[in-house]
């Protein structure tokens, strides 16, 4: 098989070695005479896989004790609702940093549950910039502050995180978890659907402070309470076992690469190649996001007109590049270079971009 240069925004590229490992377990797991997909989630084997995956994730991000990892369904979109269902009480207000369309969706879900407000928004500026969160004042009637650390669709990423004091900070890190070093302890809850940096679609990792777990609503259905997942080690109901297993393989792969410090260096080199190609040559490619706010995961750009953008998408596909069309809501083009996208793929794309510019510029 010739592997494509996969720049899909999500579900996204996975390391070939992880796919090969998963293939084996697909037919028979260990020497057990059956596959993982056929195994009871109450078996010791599955229990161990879930435990191991939790341990590996906490080790990689080097969080001190006091945090738990939950494995949940429904993608990041379910978390938009669950966060407010669990933590938005009457008399308090959930406050949102609306930095992109996923952040806005999260905010809109909170409005269906209780009182929510926008702390700062980048919408009026076409998502080109991020609000300065360093001086943010958070009122004491705030249930929690929610932010999206990397705006997958627009291609922007926060470098700074607000100091929210005793108010829990909640982060949607779906598209940049494990991609860079950061002070994880600033967050009381982090969630990430797996299909960008953690594995296949079907499971969401929720990293949550025990303190916050205990403060969650107890009067909503059990299946929606974070507490239920914590108390039952994510085995309250049948979890997506194979997706969790693949996340475990991804985490082991990440550790073998040298963990977050090494992945971060690689990611900076990778995205650097793409931004260099975008910035070369007098606005043939125009980055959508202003430079200080550019994402290390998703590079977005526009070209002179939609005709040229379409041609770029078409020709790049012919050359074996996948997933470069921008999100339908912003248009243009986007290259998503998550952890598993190899450096060679970014080199090849940068070369293609330079070549295309010379031919069409
Ligand atoms: C992809 C993505 C989502 C949506 O995830 P689903 O699993 O499809 O619900 C939400 N937030 C961010 C930051 C994303 O990148």
What features would you describe in this structure?
- There is one protein chain.
- It is built from ten helices and 14 strands.
- It has helices spanning 16-27, 44-61, 75-87, 101-113, 210-215, 226-231, 241-257, 259-279, 306-318, 343-360, and strands at 5-6, 67-72, 93-98, 116-121, 142-148, 150-151, 156-157, 169-172, 189-193, 204-209, 285-287, 298-303, 321-322, 333-336.
- The longest helix has 21 residues, at 259-279.
- It has 361 residues and is α/β, with parallel strands linked by helices.
- Helix 1 (16-27) packs antiparallel against helix 7, helix 2 packs parallel to helix 7 and helix 7 (241-257) packs across helix 8.
- The structure holds pyridoxal-5'-phosphate.
- Residues 10, 75-77, 102, 148, 152, 172, 174-175, 193, 196 line the site of pyridoxal-5'-phosphate.
- Its cofactor is pyridoxal 5'-phosphate.
Task: Give a short overview.
It contains 10 helices and 14 strands. It has helices spanning 16-27, 44-61, 75-87, 101-113, 210-215, 226-231, 241-257, 259-279, 306-318, 343-360, and strands at residues 5-6, 67-72, 93-98, 116-121, 142-148, 150-151, 156-157, 169-172, 189-193, 204-209, 285-287, 298-303, 321-322, 333-336.
């Amino acid at each position: 098989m010739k592997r494509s240069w996969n720049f899909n925004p999500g579900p996204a590229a996975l390391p070939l070695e992880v796919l090969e490992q998963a293939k084996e377990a697909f037919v028979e797991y260990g020497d057990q005479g059956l596959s993982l997909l056929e195994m009871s989630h109450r078996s010791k084997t599955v229990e161990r896989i879930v435990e191991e995956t939790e341990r590996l994730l906490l080790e990689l991000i080097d969080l001190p004790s006091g945090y738990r990892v939950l494995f949940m369904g429904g993608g990041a979109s379910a978390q938009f609702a669950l966060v407010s269902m669990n933590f938005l009480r009457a008399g308090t207000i959930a406050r949102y940093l609306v930095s992109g369309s996923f952040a806005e969706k999260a905010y809109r879900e909170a409005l269906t549950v209780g009182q929510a407000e926008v702390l700062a928004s980048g919408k009026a500026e076409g998502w080109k910039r991020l609000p300065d969160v360093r001086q943010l004042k958070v009122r004491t009637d705030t249930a929690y502050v929610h932010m999206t650390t990397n705006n997958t669709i627009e291609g922007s990423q926060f470098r700074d995180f607000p100091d929210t004091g005793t108010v829990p900070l909640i982060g949607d890190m779906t598209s940049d978890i494990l991609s860079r070093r950061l002070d994880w302890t600033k967050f009381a809850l982090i969630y990430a659907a797996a299909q960008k940096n953690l594995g296949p679609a079907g499971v969401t990792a929720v990293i949550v402070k025990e303190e916050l777990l205990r403060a969650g609503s107890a009067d909503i259905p059990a299946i929606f309470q974070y507490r239920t997942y914590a108390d039952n080690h994510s085995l309250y109901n049948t979890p997506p076992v194979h997706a969790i297993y693949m996340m475990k393989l991804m985490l082991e792969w990440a550790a073998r690469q040298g963990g977050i410090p090494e992945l971060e260096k690689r990611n900076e080199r990778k995205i650097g190649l793409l931004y260099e190609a975008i910035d070369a040559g007098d606005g043939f490619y125009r980055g959508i996001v202003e430079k200080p706010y550019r994402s290390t995961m998703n590079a977005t750009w526009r070209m002179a007109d939609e005709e040229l953008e379409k041609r770029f998408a078409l020709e790049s596909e012919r050359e074996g590049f996948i997933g470069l069309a921008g999100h339908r809501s912003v248009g243009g083009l986007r290259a998503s270079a998550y952890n598993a996208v190899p450096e060679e793929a970014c080199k090849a794309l940068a070369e293609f971009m330079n070549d295309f510019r010379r031919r069409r510029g």
